């Protein structure tokens, strides 16, 4: 049991322990469990570029881009969010490093600065490796950091504006890493940008699920998250409809692009997702949010990769 609790702390999961190792506490602030969708998003962007080749240097560049999107930029986002959410976390998650007193605020500020600096520096280095005439990855990292700040910090604090805040979070988890992966090897076109922004509506659905655990603190501090604004039951339906609807729209788009097999696979992936939505999310979202995320969301991210590979194949066949 102790090993399981320690692992929860390392990953930054709910109900983690309060270990005293300062490096574990720093890692807990960065919530490694949240890096996974961003790392996956980079993989999707690389696949969608249609320009990846299996060489040591390209594989190294992909890994560094994953480090940029996950540990550095997502770690920065999670740390700054915890810094500005310390009053809410004192109500919802008092075991978190800041409200529990496990780390002083001065050390949190230093961690924010170091993560942002390292992320921007790595983005610039990847632009240099890719010979970008415009520092695309640096601008994406800079733009993502700005979104992170206005999402978490007053006076704007986007997260207090239900729909807008959740969409900003969804786009940060789906569109931004996808763009980074695609820009590393290909180029960002307006159709790709528009498509991934639409896909980010599915990320909005994920963000709604993440807000269920914070209802008590959000209500007390007057933050209008969607579960607070609409009620848990209606918010759970909104989440399900967005996730399923966006994927069905993507399946139709793939079929229009003559990627019928990919479109069919995407539809098949939606079916078990809907089953788990019925079992967990729609019946009791407050009680079963974690079970739902673990069981249903893998089908969403697999669907993203299917879409990306199909788009990459379309781009490759167009070039040839």
List its traits.
about 325 residues; mainly alpha; disordered N terminus
Question: What would a concise description of this structure say?
Answer:
This protein has about 325 residues and is mostly helical. It contains 14 helices and no strands. It has one domain.
Written overview of the protein:
The protein is an all-alpha fold. The chain has one domain. Helix 3 packs across helix 8, helix 6 runs antiparallel to helix 7 and helix 7 runs antiparallel to helix 8. The longest helix has 35 residues. It is globular and about 50 Å long.
The total domain count is: 1
How many DSSP E strands?
0
Main sheet properties: none
Q: Helix share of residues?
A: over 70%
Number of helical regions: 14
Report, as a whole number of angstroms, the end-to-end distance. Answer: 56 Å
Overall mean confidence score, pLDDT: 87
What structural class results from the helix and strand content? Answer: mainly alpha
Instruction: Give the C-alpha Rg.
Output: 19 Å
Shape: globular
- Estimate the strand proportion: under 5%
The ordered string of helix (H) and strand (E) elements is HHHHHHHHHHHHHH
Low-confidence stretches: 1-5
Please outline the helices and strands.
Elements: H1 2-11, H2 22-30, H3 35-49, H4 56-84, H5 86-92, H6 105-130, H7 136-152, H8 162-185, H9 190-211, H10 215-221, H11 226-230, H12 232-256, H13 260-281, H14 285-319
